[in-house]
Design a protein that fits this description.
This protein is of the alpha+beta class. 63% of the residues lie in helices and 6% in strands. Strand 4 and strand 5 form a beta hairpin. The radius of gyration is 33 Å and the shape is elongated. The two termini are 24 Å apart.
Length: 354
C-alpha cells in the first residue's frame, strides 16, 4: 500500500469516527464493557486458581491414629488402608510396595507419619519455644526398646501418628467418597474378639469438600463469563455496525460515484474498516487502563474482604505487569480488532454489491 493511500484511509477513518460522535461513543462504551467484563472474570478465576494451588495437602486424605493405639493396631489399620488404596483407581499405589523389610510405608502416595515426625513439622511451622521445651525435656522417659518409628519416643508428645493418602485425581468425587466410606468402615478386634470401629469421621482429615466448592464456583464464573462475553460482544458488533452504516449512508452518493469511476471494492471498504479498527483499538487501550486500576485498587480489596484478611495480605495476588499485562493487552486488542473489522465488513456488504 502506497503511503498516500495509507494516510488517506487513516484520515477518512478518523473523520468517520468523529462524523457520528454519539454512535461512536456508544460503540466504544459497549465494547469497553465487554472487555472489562471478560478481563475481570479472567483475573478473578486466575486469582482463585493461584490461591487454591497454594493450599497445602489439597489432594491428601490424612487418617489420624487414636492416641491409645499401639504399634500392632496402627500396622493393622495401615494394611487395611493399603488394601483400599490398591483397589482405588485415583490412588497411584500398589500394596506390593509394602514389603516385609519395610516397617511402615513412606511412599509419596501412601505413607505413615509418626507422632515424632509431626512434632518436627510442628517445630518448623511454629515457634512456641516453651511448649516445645516442655515436651523435649521428657524425651527419654519412653521405653525406647519397643519404639519402631510408629509410636512416639516422647512421653508428653500430644501429637498423633497418621497415614497420608495422596490422590492423583480429585475431580472424581464419587470415587473419593467411596474411599472415605471404606476408610470409615475399617475395624479392629477388641480384647473379646469383637470387631469395633477403628476410625471415626473426625479422624479423617481432608480438603475434598473445599475442592468441590471452589471448583463449583470457578465453573460457574467461567460459564457466566463466557455467556456475558458473547452477549456483550454481539451488542458491540450491532452498535458498531450501526455506527458504520450511518457513515456509509452519509457517503452513499460518494461511494456510488467512486464505483462508477472504477474504484475497487477494497479501496472503498478500507476507510470504514479503519474506522472500525480505530474504535476497537481505542476501546482496548481504555479497557486495559481501567482493568489495571480495578485489579490494583479494587479487586484485591474485594477478595481480601471476602476472605477476612486486611489489605489483601492473606491472599496470593500476582503482579499485574508480570502476570496479566501481556495476555490482557493481546486479548483486548484481539476483541477490539475482531469487533471493528467484522462489523465494518458486514455494514458495507449492501453498498458493495455489483
Amino acid at each position: 500500500m502506497k503511503p498516500s493511500v495509507f494516510f488517506y484511509n487513516l484520515g477518512q477513518g478518523f473523520k468517520g469516527v468523529f462524523r457520528n460522535s454519539v454512535m461512536t461513543t456508544a460503540s466504544i462504551l459497549v465494547l469497553i464493557a465487554c472487555m472489562i467484563l471478560v478481563g475481570t472474570f479472567y483475573l478473578v478465576i486466575d486469582t482463585i486458581d493461584r490461591n487454591f494451588k497454594a493450599i497445602d495437602n489439597l489432594n491428601v486424605i490424612e487418617v489420624m491414629m487414636d492416641k491409645s493405639y499401639g504399634e500392632g493396631e496402627i500396622l493393622e489399620i495401615g494394611h487395611q488402608l493399603a488394601e483400599i488404596c490398591d483397589e482405588s483407581p485415583i490412588v497411584d499405589w500398589s500394596k506390593s510396595r509394602w514389603t516385609s523389610d519395610i516397617v511402615v510405608p513412606k511412599d509419596d502416595t501412601f505413607k505413615y507419619v509418626s507422632p515424632d515426625e509431626h512434632f518436627e513439622i510442628f517445630k518448623e511451622m511454629y515457634n512456641n519455644a516453651a511448649w516445645i521445651e516442655a515436651i523435649e525435656k521428657n524425651d527419654h522417659e519412653h521405653n525406647e526398646g519397643t519404639h519402631l518409628g510408629i509410636t512416639s519416643s516422647m512421653a508428653d508428645n500430644p501429637l498423633r501418628g497418621s497415614y497420608r493418602i495422596t490422590f492423583v485425581n480429585l475431580s472424581d468425587f464419587d470415587e473419593v467418597t467411596k474411599v472415605k466410606n471404606k476408610i470409615d468402615e475399617i475395624t479392629l478386634l477388641d480384647a473379646n474378639g469383637i470387631e469395633v470401629d477403628a476410625i471415626s469421621n473426625d479422624d479423617i482429615k481432608d480438603h475434598v469438600e473445599l475442592y468441590g466448592n471452589v471448583m463449583s464456583i470457578k465453573h460457574t464464573l467461567y460459564i457466566a463469563g463466557l455467556w456475558l462475553m458473547a452477549i456483550f460482544l454481539l451488542i458491540s458488533l450491532f452498535v458498531i455496525m450501526n455506527t458504520i452504516k450511518l457513515g456509509v449512508f452519509a457517503r452513499r452518493h460518494e461511494i456510488t460515484f467512486m464505483r462508477l469511476c472504477g474504484a475497487t471494492k477494497s479501496f472503498i471498504r478500507m476507510p470504514f474498516i479503519v474506522e472500525g479498527i480505530i474504535i476497537g483499538v481505542f476501546s482496548a487501550l481504555v479497557s486495559f487502563g481501567i482493568e489495571f486500576y480495578l485489579y490494583e485498587y479494587l479487586l484485591k480489596d474485594i477478595i481480601s474482604s471476602a476472605t477476612g484478611t486486611a489489605g489483601a495480605s492473606g491472599i496470593i495476588s500476582a503482579p499485574f505487569w508480570e502476570a496479566y499485562a501481556l495476555i490482557l493487552a493481546v486479548g483486548f486488542l484481539a476483541i477490539g480488532l475482531f469487533a471493528g473489522i467484522i462489523s465494518s465488513s458486514i455494514s458495507l456488504k449492501k453498498y458493495l454489491k455489483a
